[in-house]
Amino acid sequence: MTLLAVDIGRGTQDVLVYDPGRPVENCTKMVLPAPTVVVGQRIREAAGRGEGIFLEGFTMGGGGVVQAVSEHLRKGLPVFATETAALTIHDSLEKVRSLGIQVVPRQPPGTTPVRTTDYMETGLRTALGAFGLEYPRYLAFAVQDHGFAPGESNRIHRFRILGEVLDEGTWQVWALAKDPPLPTMTRMAALRDQVPGALVIDTGVAAILGTLCDPWVRERAAEGITLVNAGNAHTFCVNLRGEEVCGIFEHHTASLDRDHLLSLIGKLRDGTLTNEAVFGEGGHGARVHRPLAARHIAITGPNRKRLLPDGYQAAPFGDMMLTGCFGLVRAWEHLRGRVPP
Q1: pLDDT of amino acid 312
Q2: Sign of CA dihedral 283, 289, 295, 298
Q3: Which of 202, 213, 297 is nearest to 258 (CA)?
Q4: Is this structure's pTM higher than 0.85?
Q5: N or C: which end of the chain has fewer CB atoms below 10 A?
Q6: Other CB atoms closer than 10 Å to residue 242's CB: what's the count?
Q7: 257-270: average pLDDT
Q8: What's the number of CA atoms in the CB half-sphere (13 Å) around residue 145?
């Protein structure tokens, strides 16, 4: 009775086959290219052959897919897509059509099909099967979802929702792990459509929960600690005391360096960081519950040493790249009970 935990980012998808009957260090782990990277490459391969493409499947993360589709169109090659696949490009089908993408119900003759999905089930089954591993019964995913609310910026919507769930959950960290996810979270909903009953939570939240599995972090959380996940695309920061969230912010990793990150953390800690300030400089936003002069900083994620080389480099179970997966396991056990051996 294993749990397949898949933390899906912009550059990689990090995979853990959690078996409660063995030490975590001995569980099967993989760090693979992210679905957006794989799908983007398939689109570019079709472009290299001069072929039009037909996107079919589910709504998934944009990123590399949107970039590859844009390149395809600039080369004068046709792009067709089903409605659900087209929502990967933009939440508005009207906007998708304005880009030159034709939304159609079935594959036009002479085009190359490209499947869109955050859940690369066939590839995962093949990889595990090659080593004689049984495919897990339980599945958990982490993705970043801006959500969709017509007439409202997706960045504004994302942080409005984060603020609302924290208010409803009295600013406890578990309030951020909504199960099931809210209906406006379209990317999460697509995963639930593919895997009914799967646990699907936010990547930033999964990373924070995973960081708390690090013994050094766990020992200092009671007195107050600032946790940072420096991902390939986004940096998510939580000021935490015990399980109480005192403040959060999220920014684009490429827009940050050490000094700017420390400046934002300082304002988060003294309670002066505003949502408008972070949003105004291109970030997602911020929410502050109360000031907390935390003494410690722990950072995880693939950009941790670039952004904060002198911070504590959190690596739960000795594996930083699997931090989000460990957070998924922790979320599963908190929300649904222990995975049966």
Answers
A1: 97
A2: negative
A3: 297
A4: yes
A5: C
A6: 12
A7: 98
A8: 32
**Domain range 35-116, CATH class:** alpha beta
* Cis peptide preceding 180, ω within 30 of 0: yes
Give CA–CA dist 13/25, Å, rounded.
Answer: 19
What tokens does 242 get?
């015990």
Tokens (6 digits) for 129: 């099967």
In one-letter notation, the amino acid at residue 81 is A
Contact 64, 9 (CB under 8 A): no
Asked whether residue 287 carries a pLDDT value surpassing 80, the answer given is: yes
- Local confidence band at 147 (pLDDT 50, 70, 90 cut-offs): confident
Distance CA 208, CA 264 (A): 18
H or E element that contains 168: helix 154-168
Angle in degrees, 0-180, between the axes of helices 64-74 and 35-48, rounded to the nearest 10? 10
Tell me: the pLDDT tens digits for 190-201?
Answer: 999 999 999 999
Which DSSP state fits 23? Answer: -
Instruction: Count other Cβ atoms within 10 Å, centred on residue 20.
Output: 15
* Six-digit token string for 293: 């002069």
With bands split at pLDDT 50, 70 and 90, how would you rate the model's confidence at 212? very high
Q: What pLDDT score does 151 carry?
A: 79
Using the 8-state DSSP alphabet, how is residue 199 labeled? E
Q: Where does CATH 3.40.50 sit in the chain?
A: 35-116
pLDDT of residue 152: 83
